[in-house]
Amino acid sequence: MTSGTSAAPNTGPSAAAPASVSFPAGFAWGAATAAYQIEGSATADGRTPSIWDTFSHTPGKTLGGDTGDVAVDHYRRRPDDVALMAELGLTAYRFSVSWSRVQPTGRGPAVQRGLDFYRGLVDDLLARGITPALTLYHWDLPQELEDAGGWPVRETAERFAEYAALVGEALGDRVEMWTTLNEPWCSAFLGYGSGVHAPGRTDPVAALRAAHHLNLGHGLATQALRSVLPARARLGISLNPSAVRAKTEDPADQEARRRIDALANRVFSDPILHGHYPADLLADTVRLTDWSFVSEDDLTAIHQPLDFLGINYYQPTVVSSPGPDAPTGPRSDGHGASDHSPWPGSEDIVFHPAPGERTAMGWSVDPTGLHDLLMHYSAEAPGVALYVTENGVAYDDKPGPDGAVHDPDRIRYLDGHLRAIRRAITDGADVRGYFQWSLMDNFEWAYGYSKRFGLVYIDYETQERTPKSSARWYAQAARSGELPPLP
Ligand code: FCB
What backbone torsions phi and psi does residue 389 show, to the nearest 5 degrees? Predict the structure, then answer.
């Protein structure tokens, strides 16, 4: 992402907001979840551990030792949850398939009971007029594949394509929108670099190899899906590109921005959209690897036509060159603290909090980054539709004395980001829909159940679901195609 050369001041989510903002007909009003974060029933119907089961059961890896064993019990409450989605006016729902439910060892034939769960989910959605948007991989690699080398090895990409074909064959008659990977940056650099995510490895070279084999997995899976899916299927990937801004106009800070742009963004978007790795990234990492694990054939396989690109956005990234005041010691990249950097070859670059209000994650609220990204990818990938496949916010929501959960801050956040999307559409970006993260409070990875991103409040003792006031606001937007007034 090369637009935006210095950290812009945050003008606030609703600065100079026009009174009424409406969206094009057919715009998808969605919400998103991921299998390990909501399903629970970790050992039901033949499911075996994924890397997230192993990681969360390892002492010290998640806050309070929380695991996804029960999560929000969606595996058993699926019909009621879909009814709730319909009540909230959703027109689309983004979910992920648990690889370990469908192909427990990561190899061999599919387990029918695993597929049946997703077939049931899709049927429930379609019966209520909600478009299913299926993600094949949201970070939960079958443990056996990690034991065989994980994403740093080529075989994992090949296994992923086989798994993609199995799911494609089973659900291709009823699912049109397919996403290969969710946020490969997190899988590669948090999973194998800083180690704050599963499998918790801290090896910079393994992280770069993982990035490549995730790209390859995307390409091979896209080819496999095209061969089994009907022509009407739409295929894409969800990236979490950073809207990277340099702290100052100083050339050294601009150079820091370039390096992080390479590692956060172009390591994925260049091979996927253009069929090559960025020359500057190869030079930046030359101390670590000669990238001989990449072949010309791999690049051809990765560079597949896409129908859409999913953008996941939470906050901008502000960087500077390492100066005398650079902080030392454990660092937090917003997903957990670690002594290890998730930025191979650029470990010394300094990250600064972006301007603006903070959320319960400590992330800043600044919708301008979303507008920047949408405009950037609209120019970089002409003809490829864009979806915002994740955007949302954690606040410490609690039921009031009346039992209701009032979350006006989340409404303001959604309003600000939806306005940024509307501006991007006006400015020419082909944005087809929005998937709010997340439908319900859920297992927020290393933070366990401590962070609440949901439109729907979960009482983890009873599993009772209570739509927050943001859910009602969003339902009104989804029904009218227009942003309702702020409370
Ligand atoms: C994204 C993840 C999603 C959720 C949100 C808050 O990086 O894709 O699962 O954790 O962050």
Answer: -90, -10
In a domain? residue 70: yes
End-to-end, the C-alpha distance of the chain in Å comes to 35
Q: Does ligand 1 come within 6 angstroms of the Cβ of 443?
A: no
Cα atoms found within 13 Å of the Cα of residue 123, Cβ hemisphere only: 8
Q: Which of 390, 391, 443, 451 to mutate to test the pocket of ligand 1 (most atoms within 8 A of CB)?
A: 390
Band of residue 331 on the pLDDT scale cut at 50, 70, 90: low
In a domain, residue 12? The reply is no
Kindly state if the Cβ of 81 falls inside 6 Å of ligand 1. Answer: no
Strand partners, 309: 237, 386
Q: Give yes or no for residue 12 having a pLDDT over 50.
A: no
Count other Cβ atoms within 10 Å, centred on residue 286: 11
Confirm if 53 and 199 have CB atoms less than 8 A apart: no
Please indicate, yes or no, if residue 486 is contained in any of the structural domains. no
| Matching residue, tokens 């387990």 | 111
Q: What pLDDT does 323 receive?
A: 75
What range defines the domain where residue 175 resides? Answer: 28-480
Give the pLDDT confidence of 83-105 residue by residue, as tens digits: 999 999 999 999 999 999 999 99
Residue 415 Cα to ligand 1 middle (Å):
20
How far, in Å, from the CA of 441 to the mean position of ligand 1?
Answer: 12
- What's the CATH code of the domain at 33? 3.20.20.80
Provide the domain count of the chain.
1
- In the annotation, is 461 catalytic? no
Q: Is any atom of ligand 1 closer than 6 Å to the C-beta of 445?
A: yes
Q: Is the CB of 210 under 6 A from ligand 1?
A: no
**Residue 320 placed within a domain:** yes
Q: Residue 263 — very low, low, confident or very high, per pLDDT cuts 50/70/90?
A: very high
pLDDT of residue 406: 98
Residue 32 Cβ < 6 Å to ligand 1 = no
Residue 214 has pLDDT above 50, yes or no: yes
pLDDT digits (tens, 9 = 90+) for 386-441: 999 999 999 999 999 999 999 999 999 999 999 999 999 999 999 999 999 999 99
Catalytic site includes residue 464:
no
Ligand 1 centroid to 33 CA: how many Å? 9
Which one of the listed residues 39, 183, 380, 444 is annotated catalytic?
Answer: 183
Ligand 1 center from residue 353 Cα (angstroms): 19
Does the beta carbon of 390 lie inside 6 Å of ligand 1?
yes
DSSP per-residue codes, 400-459: -TTS----HHHHHHHHHHHHHHHHHHHTT--EEEEEEE-SB----GGGGGG----SEEEE
Residues 416, 392: contact at Cβ < 8 Å? no
By most ligand atoms within 8 Å of CB, the mutation choice from 33, 37, 95, 183 for ligand 1 is 183
